[in-house]
Amino acid sequence: MGDFCQIDKQEIIKRYKPIDKYTHKGLRGHALIIGGSYGKMGSVVLASKACIKAGAGLVTAYIPKCGYDIVQISVPEVMVITDDYLEHIIKIDYKLQPQAIGIGIGMGQHPDTGHAFLNFLKMNKLPLVVDADALNILSQNKEWLSLLPKKTILTPHQKELERLIGEWNSEDEKLEMVRKICIEYDLIFVLKGVPTIIIDNTSTYENTTGNQALATAGSGDVLTGIITSLVAQSYKPIDAAIIGVYLHGLTADIAYPDVSYQSFIASDIIETLGEAYLHIIA
Ligand SMILES: NC(=O)C1=CN([C@@H]2O[C@H](COP(=O)(O)OP(=O)(O)OC[C@H]3O[C@@H](n4cnc5c(N)ncnc54)[C@H](O)[C@@H]3O)[C@@H](O)[C@H]2O)[C@@H](O)CC1
Ligand SMILES: Nc1ncnc2c1ncn2[C@@H]1O[C@H](COP(=O)(O)OP(=O)(O)O)[C@@H](O)[C@H]1O
Ligand SMILES: [Mg+2]
C-alpha cells in the first residue's frame, strides 16, 4: 500500500502556481472540450464555461452541429468546431493544437460516436481527461485503455466505475481494483463520491471539500472542465486532479449557506470558482 494524503489547503498551496503579471492568453493554455449530443448540449456549455472560468486562456468546444448556436450563445468566450453530423459526433477532426483535451460529457454512446472515439484515441498523444460517455464506451471496449496517453485522468462516478471494472465487495477491494488498472496503464483515477478519492498508481489522495449540494445534474461535467483547464495551464495531471477536485468541492462549501443544498446547481459551481480561488491564495 503506497502513500496516503488528505487534500487540504496546505496541499493546494504547495501545488498552486501564481499568475504572472506579463502573461497573455496564449500562455494560459488552450483547452479542447469534446462532447455533446442532441438534448445534452448543456453538459458542454457547463464544462467549457467551467474550463475558461478555471483560468484557461483559450477554450474550444468540439460538438455536433445541433449544438452550434447553443454553445456560441451560452458561452461567447468559447470557440466552437462542429462535427459534420447534426445530432451526435461521428468524426473527431480538428486542426488546432490544444494543451489538454476533456472528452465524453454528453457525448452519447451511438456506434458512430464510438467509432469516432476509437479513431481519436489511435491518433491522440495530448494530455486527456476522460469522463461520462467516453468512460462508458471504454467500458464496452476495455482493450482501448491501452490507447490512452500515460497519466490520462479518468473521472468516473460509482456507476461508471462499476461498468469499467466490475462489481466490488468493499471499498478496499474497489481501491485495489483501481490501483491495478492505474499501474497497468499508468492512469490517474478521480473516484467521484463522498469523499472523492484520487488514485495515482500506489498514491491515494482523499479530498476534504464538498458537500451534498454537489448532488445535482452537471456537477461532474463542470469538474471535467475544471481539471481539463488546469492541465491546459501546464499543471501536472496529478496536480490538476488534486486542485480541481478541491476547488470544485470548495465552491459548494462556500455557496451552500447562502443558497441551501437543494438550490445549488452546477452553474453555481462555475459562478463560485473565483471565490474558491481567492480562498486558496488568501
Ligand atoms: N445538462 C446536461 O446536458 C447533462 C448531461 N449529462 C450527461 O448525461 C450522460 C449520462 O450521465 P449520468 O451520470 O446522468 O448517467 P449514468 O447512466 O452514467 O449514471 C446514472 C445512473 O448512475 C447512478 N449514479 C449516478 N451517480 C452515482 C453515484 N455518485 N453513485 C452511485 N450511483 C450513481 C444513478 O443512480 C443512475 O442509475 C453523460 O454523458 C453526462 O455527461 C449529465 O451530466 C447530466 C446533465
Ligand atoms: N453527496 C455528495 N457529497 C459530495 N459530493 C457529491 C455528492 N453527490 C455528488 N457529488 C459530487 O458531484 C459530482 C457528480 O458527478 P457526476 O455524477 O458525473 O455528475 P454529472 O454527470 O451529472 O455532471 C462528483 O464530483 C461527486 O463527487
Ligand atoms: Mg458525470
From TrEMBL:
The protein's required cofactors: Mg(2+)
MF terms (GO), sorted A to Z: ADP-dependent NAD(P)H-hydrate dehydratase activity; ATP binding; kinase activity; NAD(P)HX epimerase activity
EC nos: 4.2.1.136
Boundaries of every YjeF C-terminal domain copy: 8-280
Residues that hold AMP according to the record: 192-196, 220
Residue numbers binding (6S)-NADPHX: 106, 157, 221
Keywords, alphabetical: ATP-binding, Kinase, Lyase, NAD, NADP, Nucleotide-binding, Transferase
Enzyme class: lyase
InterPro entries in alphabetical order: Carbohydrate_kinase_pred_CS, CARKD, Ribokinase-like
Catalyzed reaction equations: (6S)-NADPHX + ADP = AMP + phosphate + NADPH + H(+); (6S)-NADHX + ADP = AMP + phosphate + NADH + H(+)
Gene Ontology BP annotations: metabolite repair; nicotinamide nucleotide metabolic process
Family: Belongs to the NnrD/CARKD family.
Subunit structure: Homotetramer.
Matches recorded under NCBIfam families: yjeF_cterm
Role this protein plays: Catalyzes the dehydration of the S-form of NAD(P)HX at the expense of ADP, which is converted to AMP. Together with NAD(P)HX epimerase, which catalyzes the epimerization of the S- and R-forms, the enzyme allows the repair of both epimers of NAD(P)HX, a damaged form of NAD(P)H that is a result of enzymatic or heat-dependent hydration.
HAMAP family attached to this UniProt entry: NADHX_dehydratase
UniProt protein name: ADP-dependent (S)-NAD(P)H-hydrate dehydratase
Organism (species): Flavobacterium swingsii
Gene that encodes it: nnrD
